[in-house]
TrEMBL record:
Keywords noted in UniProt: Fatty acid metabolism, Isomerase, Lipid degradation, Lipid metabolism, Lyase, Multifunctional enzyme, NAD, Oxidoreductase, Peroxisome
Protein name: 3-hydroxyacyl-CoA dehydrogenase
Catalytic activity: a (3S)-3-hydroxyacyl-CoA + NAD(+) = a 3-oxoacyl-CoA + NADH + H(+)
Keyword Cell membrane: no
Superkingdom of source: Bacteria
Pathway assignment: Lipid metabolism; fatty acid beta-oxidation
Residues of the 3-hydroxyacyl-CoA dehydrogenase C-terminal domain: 478-562, 597-682
GO biological process: fatty acid beta-oxidation
PROSITE patterns tied to this protein: ENOYL_COA_HYDRATASE
Subcellular location(s) per record: Peroxisome
Quaternary structure and partners: Monomer.
Family: In the N-terminal section; belongs to the enoyl-CoA hydratase/isomerase family. Belongs to the enoyl-CoA hydratase/isomerase family.
Annotated ranges, domain 3-hydroxyacyl-CoA dehydrogenase NAD binding: 298-473
Length: 688
């Protein structure tokens, strides 16, 4: 075996040259890998004793994609197109041997091989769309030629990882080889290709099947809602349309559109989010030496919507759950909802009935807190009331075993005050799940003043285990997400009081990229959350709507009117209520521009985020953005509130806040941190 460079080896197995990459952790297409591939193929092609070439990777995966840390920087090493040309134009058959994943650039390398073999556990895909990009090394032109236009559309606009068996069925993988015997299987396949004189198949020479104008029109129409606001899916579609052109012409289209995305703000934002989610796992004062606590059983207090959803996360991960309610009917209802959720998933083909029973078999219901005595983690998901929560934790303190983690799902309340109701505040932490808890990716992990490092470290690791994006935050009212949301809600209500209609505010925020605006969201959740009929005094628009039994979608009317399919339309009833409020308050309603609506709802969030950073309630600006992208529907292609502030320029943010401060008061006063960064010409990205 000869070393080509530090990450590439070349060896001969008889007349088969085997090029082996080993560039941990995922064999990404770094400069060293590209150089190794180029020189390895050059040497194998020049060796007269070699009749075929196998490309294989050591470690846990094939080439898992590009080295995105090189994006935007100076390119070094061999160009990927040069490597691909060397492989594709090899006079000797080239076989790509795939295990783990062949994603993005990894699959694009495999596509220039003449043949591909894989173990059944392997997966392939072109997920660049998730970074606001398209495959830039011929993937948009080769994939449709091998799997057809329809499958290429699905794969490239979803970024899906396709299992090897499915890839084999669609012709993307030529042969499956036995698990654990990839090297032997690939060498045997390469020898068969030579022995039987198989042709040197170039994917680029194939025709694209099924690329009709109707296919593309129907696909755009079917996915219009999902792709709204994103450039990358549309650009991927255009590239697949171009795959019907001669290959070199299609490549020119791919290159042009790739560069537009690569240099544009959307991909910059999506790449930022990618790294931000990974950075959130790094806690400066918690190293690898902090011992993790075992979590082999979980207790959940409350079988309502939140408690049930929280329980499902752990059941999905194979962790037994005991769920406690006060009354049998509430417990039965909660257990029934969990089962129904699983059965609905099974009915859609995303879960087997066997898996449903397996998960339900891990779930135990109880009416006694004492049954949680042996749980490693207990999560309280009861009514959002401090007295009730303190009472529950006081009881848990006497019941839970030593070392058990005691977690509260509170979304606003002081975790330190809750912890003080126990004799072990070091074991108490906030685990703020978002509704629906079995679906939403975000988990705000609230570190109290006395929460121990092992409890924090275990909670962060547990977030990964249950498929969540965990973000560590500090104790303050509403933590990071709801605290910033509150500033937006205050301004949304103020804008309506000054003359904007709820649907005006919602439209502006929807066009910005949110799934819905604040008033549509209130109607969906129910206007009567936290409303008391006995205490209601017609003092707010919401109270009046609730008193009229306009409590949102569930009653067919709220801020909006709804038809039988829950389609919303602006309500003349709500409009008159708003006008009456204005008249009674002595306000002269005015025309409010879309620009003002956007600035007054979004810029206070940026300012509040700066205050959170100033107070040390979030570790980094990117953590704030991770919360908002994963928990509140902030459009990923805008990167999060702090990234958005940076993209505007903090000097402009400060200038606009001061403009509104002059008109509407100190609610808009820029934070000290914001003013400091703006004065220094810096952004949140510069904070260390």
């Amino acid at each position: 075996m000869a070393a080509i460079n530090s990450v590439t080896d070349l060896s001969n197995e008889g007349d088969v040259a085997v090029i082996t990459l080993n560039s941990p952790p995922v064999n990404a297409l770094s400069a060293g890998v590209r150089d190794g591939l180029y020189e390895g193929f050059k040497a194998a092609i020049a060796d007269d004793s070699v009749k075929s070439i196998v490309l294989i990777c050591d470690g846990r995966t094939f080439i898992a994609g590009a080295d995105i840390s090189e994006f935007g920087g100076e390119r070094k090493g061999a160009d990927l197109p040069a490597v691909q040309d060397m492989m594709e134009n090899s006079p000797k058959p080239v076989v790509a041997a795939i295990h783990g994943t062949a994603l993005g650039g990894g699959l694009e390398v495999a596509l220039v091989a003449h043949y591909r073999v894989a173990v059944p556990s392997a997966k392939v895909g072109l997920p660049e769309v998730n970074l606001g990009l398209l495959p830039g090394a011929g993937g948009t032109q080769r994939l449709p030629r091998i799997v057809g236009a329809a499958k290429a559309l699905d794969m490239m606009t979803s970024g899906a990882h396709v299992p090897a068996k499915a890839a084999n069925a669609m012709g993307l993988v030529d042969e499956l080889v036995e698990e654990g015997k990839l090297r032997e299987g690939a060498i045997a396949f390469a020898k068969k290709v030579v022995a039987e004189n198989w042709p040197l198949k170039k994917v680029r020479d194939r025709e694209v099947a099924g690329a009709t104008p109707e296919l593309f029109a129907d696909f755009r129409k079917a996915n219009a809602r999902k792709f709204r606001g994103f450039l990358a899916p549309e650009y991927n579609i255009r590239c697949i349309e171009a795959s019907t052109l001669p290959f070199d012409e299609g490549m020119k289209v791919e290159r042009k559109l790739f560069m537009e995305l690569m240099t544009g703000p959307q991909s910059a934002a999506q790449r930022y989010v990618f790294f931000a989610e990974r950075a959130a796992n790094k806690i400066p004062d918690i190293g690898d030496d902090v011992e993790l606590l075992p979590v082999k059983s979980v207790g959940v207090i409350g079988a309502g919507t939140m408690g049930g959803g929280i329980s499902m996360n752990f059941l999905n991960a194979g962790i037994p759950v005991k769920i406690v309610e006060m009354k049998q009917d509430a417990l039965d209802r909660g257990l029934g909802v969990i089962r129904k959720n699983y059965e609905n998933t099974a009915a859609k083909g995303r879960l087997t009935l066997e898996a449903v029973e397996q998960r339900m078999g891990l779930l135990t219901g109880s009416l006694a807190l004492e049954d949680l005595a042996d749980c490693d983690l207990i999560i309280e998901a009861v009514f959002e009331n401090m007295d009730i929560k303190k009472e529950v934790f006081g009881k848990l303190d006497a019941i839970a075993k030593p070392g058990a983690i005691l977690a509260t799902n509170t979304s606003y309340l002081n975790v330190d005050e809750i912890a003080a109701s126990t004799s072990r505040p070091e074991s108490v932490i906030g685990l703020h799940f978002f509704s629906p808890a079995n679906v939403m990716r975000l988990l705000e992990i609230v570190r109290g003043d006395k929460t121990s490092k092992p409890v924090v470290a275990t909670s962060m690791k547990l977030a990964k285990t249950i498929g969540k994006v965990g973000v560590l935050v500090g104790v303050c009212n509403g933590f990071v997400g709801n605290r910033m949301l509150s500033s937006r809600q205050i301004q949304a209500q103020a804008l309506v009081a000054e003359g904007a209609m709820p649907w005006d505010v919602d439209r502006v925020l929807y066009d910005f990229g949110f799934p819905m605006g604040p008033f549509a969201m209130s109607d969906l959740a129910g206007l009567d959350i936290g409303w008391s009929k006995e205490k209601s005094s017609s003092s707010t628009i919401r109270e009046v709507l609730c008193e009229m039994d306009r409590r949102g979608q569930k009653t067919g009317a709220g801020y909006y009117d709804y038809d039988e399919k829950r389609n919303a339309k602006p309500s003349p009833v709500t409009e008159q209520i708003i006008k009456d409020f204005a008249a009674n308050s002595g306000v002269n309603p005015r025309e409010i521009s879309d620009e003002e609506i956007l600035e007054r709802t979004i810029l206070p969030m940026v300012n509040e985020g700066a205050k959170i950073l100033e107070e040390g309630k979030a570790l980094r600006a990117s953590d704030v953005d991770t919360v908002w992208v994963n928990g509140y529907g902030w459009p990923v292609y805008r990167g999060g509130p702090m990234h958005y502030g940076d993209s505007l320029g903090l000097a402009k943010v400060v200038e606009r806040l001061k403009h509104y401060q002059d008109k509407h008061g100190d609610f808009f006063k820029p934070s000290a941190l914001l003013e400091k960064l703006a004065a220094e010409g810096k952004g949140f990205k510069d904070l260390k």
